[in-house]
Specification:
Layout lengths: L2 E4 L4 E5 L10 H10 L2 E5 L15 H15 L4 E6 L1 H12 L4 E7 L11 H9 L8 H10 L4 H8 L2 E3 L5 E3 L3 H6 L1 H4 L13 E6 L10 H7 L3 E6 L6 H4 L1 H17 L12
């Protein structure tokens, strides 16, 4: 598992979502570094610079994180995960509760979802990266398929230039497509994680709903929730200062003993 590490203090692992990489939560990483944390930003398998693997279950993704923990000899850490990264973080927390000091889940629930990325997957598969003159050409193909400009820009960050010209996909698109049923599935059945958990929802996002509350509480009985107004699923990018403050306030309360949870400005 590829990672980048910076800062000193209690360790926090940041996990990106589907089609992303370790840079997606770089802004939060810088804020945590400034706050006095040891920050590890990871690439999930088949993303970023991590190895490509044919299989991609939640159990395997969580085991990748456990192998990294052993490699770095870290007794415990907090985890912040967005979307797919949140599902991986939840799976790991239930599988290795003694290794997790606190958990923040950004805009995802521990439930199965309907397919919602078929257009993206099909369009990405149709792009021939080796013959692309520019990323903008790929963005146009995505736009022609009805994919919004922001999502197209995000997706084409996975195109990396080749020395001989054209581009290559950093993502393992074949494996992601083949494992998509695993990615949208509910979490493995495991004992509840009884440590501190904060779920942060984007107000306009459909990923985390009131209907999911029972399953959230069943798996995470100490869970609390916050909503960031005026945001969707990409809440960490749409209102980064508010998102970062929510994460830092929660981690400070549970990792450093500095609790500003009674500050009205810190609770949305």
């Amino acid at each position: 598992m590829h990672y980048e590490r910076h800062g000193q203090g209690p360790t926090v692992v940041l996990i990106h979502g589907l089609f992303g990489d370790r840079d997606n939560l770089a802004g939060l990483g810088r804020a945590l570094d400034a706050e006095g944390y040891d920050v590890i930003r990871v690439d999930l398998r088949n993303h970023g610079q991590s190895p490509h693997q044919d299989s991609m279950t939640f159990a395997e993704l969580a085991e990748d994180l456990e192998q990294l923990r052993q490699q770095l000899d870290i007794p415990r850490f907090a985890i912040v995960g967005h979307s797919l990264g949140g599902k991986v973080a939840m799976t790991y927390s239930q599988a290795y509760p003694q290794r997790v000091s606190a958990l923040v889940v950004a805009d995802i629930a521990p439930v199965a979802y309907e397919r919602r990325h078929d257009t993206i997957l099909a369009t990405l598969a149709s792009i021939e990266p080796g013959t692309l003159p520019s990323r903008k050409a790929a963005q146009q193909q995505l736009a022609d398929a009805g994919i919004d400009a922001g999502t197209a820009l995000f997706l084409t960050k996975n195109l990396k230039p080749r020395a001989e010209g054209g581009y290559r996909w950093q993502l393992n698109l074949d494996a992601i497509n083949a494992n998509y049923p695993n990615i949208i599935a509910g979490l493995p059945e495991q004992p509840p994680f009884t440590g501190p958990v904060r779920f942060i929802k984007g107000e306009h996002s459909e990923y985390l709903q009131a209907a999911h509350q029972a399953e959230v509480v069943r798996r995470f009985p100490k869970a609390e929730a916050r909503v960031i107004a005026g945001t969707g699923h990409w809440l960490h990018a749409e209102k980064p200062q508010l998102f970062n403050r929510q994460v830092i306030q929660f981690l400070n309360a549970h990792l450093t003993g500095s609790d500003d949870s009674h500050d009205p400005a810190a609770v949305l």
